[in-house]
Amino acid sequence: MTLLSKTLFCLLLCLIAISTGQSTDSNADRILGRWLFPKKQTCVEIYRENGLYFGRMAQISGSCQASYGNISNKVVLTNLSYTDNSWSGGTMIHPSSGMKFSVEMHMSNPNTLVATVYKGMKMFSKELVLTRQQPTS
After folding, report:
1. Of 31, 51, 118, 120, most Cβ neighbours within 10 A?
2. What is residue 115's three-state secondary structure?
3. Which among 41, 43, 44 has a CA at the least distance from the CA of 63?
């Protein structure tokens, strides 16, 4: 192989690697935004920081505030990473007790996020179905 051929080959490999990374980031970022908990009065805003995903309480219902106090902007999801069409390796923190649970998430469609929350063994888990909060105009 000539030097020019080797250089072009290396450039092609770099372009493929870069475009693959962007595709993964775009798929991973589908989780970004506000998600309503099952009772649909409280939502969490999921954001990205240093390649990991976090969630903070964004909108609190009156009954939630009565039960948990003012938890607005409290971080309740930490360190989720994206692999194979799901987000895992993270922790969900109970807003009042501070108890930590393992959490894994996947999207069943663009507006539905399924969170599996468990402590210790996954066979003793709870599934929460969150819906995307549509932006107000």
Report:
1. 31
2. strand
3. 41
- Domain range holding 23? 1-30
Mean pLDDT of all residues belonging to the chain: 80
Q: Give the position of tokens 């507006």.
A: 111
Handedness of CA 93, 73, 90, 123 (dihedral sign): positive
Q: Which of 73, 78, 23 is nearest to 50 (CA)?
A: 78
The verdict on residue 117 lying in a domain is yes
Number of domains in the chain: 2
The number of beta carbons lying within 10 Å of the beta carbon of residue 35 is: 25
Joined together, the tokens standing for residue 66 give 């009565």
Instruction: Say if residue 66 is in the same domain as residue 114.
Output: yes
Query: Is the confidence at residue 115, as pLDDT, over 90?
Result: yes
Residue 11: is it exposed, middle or buried by C-beta count within 10 angstroms (0-12/13-18/19+)? exposed
pLDDT tens figures, 25-75: 688 999 999 999 887 788 899 999 999 999 999 988 888 777 777 888 899
Distance CA 20, CA 117 (A): 30
Higher pLDDT, 37 or 21: 37
